[in-house]
């Protein structure tokens, strides 16, 4: 579960962007003395959301609308992720690793600051005094005029958000200059939280398609080729959480790390969030499926670490997380006789209004997207 001792931790990307939507999965890294494996770009990493919205409540800003993943999107995820991984592999083979990582560091420096700022903003609000001079601002970009006028960006923020942005910038500079593991983890957690909040599955079947496809993707790229290993060792970005194994020996200057790709958090996370919303839709004042899937995630992650240390070889975490996160809730649904309700539950996104189009036409266009 660690990289080579004495080396600086390396990550990999999970990047193909679909509107702020990243594709792919990730792998747990190898044990001490074993070969370290990284992860590929995924939701909540490179294309992580830069907004902080509750997944159960409608966002206030037009730019904060969550991306709904349909079954068609889910089926394409592994293909796009594989193309992205191969593209990164070729980039590192053709171009200088130093220059690529320099560009990526600047890119994640900006993304990380914004993501962390929006993540800590709700927590920081309670620390501001009641008489704090809080002014409201709005950033608005439009295209066209009259009936064809369309909002490109409509973002509202206040003075408190600017304070959070300044605090996050300190972490950003720390990461840019030192690549310290604490700064890396702060950015990684922010990407993960925003990724789960931004990406929504429309139903359980779509979640099964997504998890099943990335299950195959993860197993193939970890066990079948060395592409993921090469990318993981070459890519330097906060798209994984790192855990120092020599913390007691070297303190905050630890340099021997175990790594967990953000995809192993975000991909199961959006499925667990879907089950939480399904729990709420049942109106039974229980969160049975949420707690079951959450326990299943912990079990799957623990099993990954156990197998990894037994065989001294890197393991694709989704190999264990997917069966656990799907299987446990399904067994509960079978026991409660709610399988039909589970698979018939579906979320519908708010139809996008098209200028000059009737509501019926807009609804029909929205159906075609699914």
UniProtKB/TrEMBL annotation:
**Gene Ontology MF term list:** aspartic endopeptidase activity, intramembrane cleaving
List where Polar residues composition bias occurs. Answer: 10-28
One protein family per Pfam: Peptidase_A22B
Q: Does the keyword Ion transport apply?
A: no
Its keywords, alphabetically, are: Endoplasmic reticulum, Hydrolase, Membrane, Transmembrane, Transmembrane helix
Compositional bias annotation for Basic and acidic residues: 358-370
Gene3D superfamilies of this UniProt entry?
Presenilin
Cellular component terms (Gene Ontology)? cytoplasmic side of endoplasmic reticulum membrane; lumenal side of endoplasmic reticulum membrane
Q: Does the keyword Cell cycle apply?
A: no
Q: What is its main location?
A: endoplasmic reticulum
Provide the residue span(s) of the region labelled Disordered.
Answer: 1-56, 346-370
Which parts of the chain span the membrane according to its record?
Answer: 74-92, 99-120, 198-223, 257-276, 288-311, 317-335
- Where in or outside the cell is it found? Endoplasmic reticulum membrane; Membrane
Q: Give the source's domain of life in one word.
A: Eukaryota
Membrane topology per the entry is: Multi-pass membrane protein
> Which family is it part of?
Belongs to the peptidase A22B family.
This protein's name: Histocompatibility minor 13
Per the UniProt record, the source organism is Dromaius novaehollandiae
- List the taxonomic lineage: Eukaryota, Metazoa, Chordata, Craniata, Vertebrata
